[in-house]
Design a protein that fits this description.
- This protein is of the alpha+beta class and 159 residues long.
- It has five helices and nine strands, in the order ααββββββββααβα.
- Strand 7 (97-104) and strand 8 (110-117) form a beta hairpin.
- It is globular and about 50 Å long.
- The chain starts with 5 loop residues before the first helix and ends with a helix.
Amino acid sequence: MRIFNYAKIVEDASKKIDPDATHAQREALNFRHGHVWIHGLPIGIEWAKGDTRTGVGLDGKTWSRKMMGAYGRLKRTVGKDGEPVDVYIGDHPSSQIVFVITQLDSDSNIDEHKVIIGCTHLAEAKKLYLSHYPDWWEDQRLGEIRMMVMPQFKKWLKS
């Protein structure tokens, strides 16, 4: 049985992200990503752990967040928002536990799903997710959190 050092694989792939990608390139997903396979899942990493992600909110104000985990998209998937499913990668990517967070919109309807891999328990996954959002997010945008193991998650992705 082959053992993978997923943490090293994620770290190495994160170094390949284009650090000079413009906001427009990032929005269009038209820039160099870090590419990894974790537990058979192809992932394009857009932001490395430790990077500062910036953007403009619906209110027109600029925001920035330090990335507490690598962030990207699950390739060959389509989420509720019509884009590849978003994924955060925690500090334990060899873990077979997956958390699927239902993110709500401002009317408390399902907006999209965020996937958390690389966490070993619910509190760790929730903390990683919420670390990327403002304080009010938990009360207004955090929906259900489902925990599953990797084979269950792969079936969920197909449904």
